[in-house]
Amino acid sequence: MNINWAALGQVFGVSVVTTVALVGVFTLGIVGTAPRKGGSGGASALVRSGAYACYAACAAAVGYGIYLIVA
Prior knowledge:
Elements: H1 5-33, H2 41-70
Helix pairs in contact: 1-2
C-alpha cells in the first residue's frame, strides 16, 4: 500500500485554511450582530447586514461541503 503524502498534505492544508477562514467569517457575523452601546443608526444597519452576509456565506460553505460529500 502506497500513501501519496503530497496529496494528503494538500488535503490537510486546504482543510486547515478553509476551517480557519470559515470560523473567521462566522466570528465576524457574531461581532456584527452583538449589541452595541450608543452606535449610529445607519452604520449599525450596514454592520448588521454585513453580519447576515457572513452568516449566509457560512451556510453556503457548509451546504457546498455537504453537496461534495453526498454527490
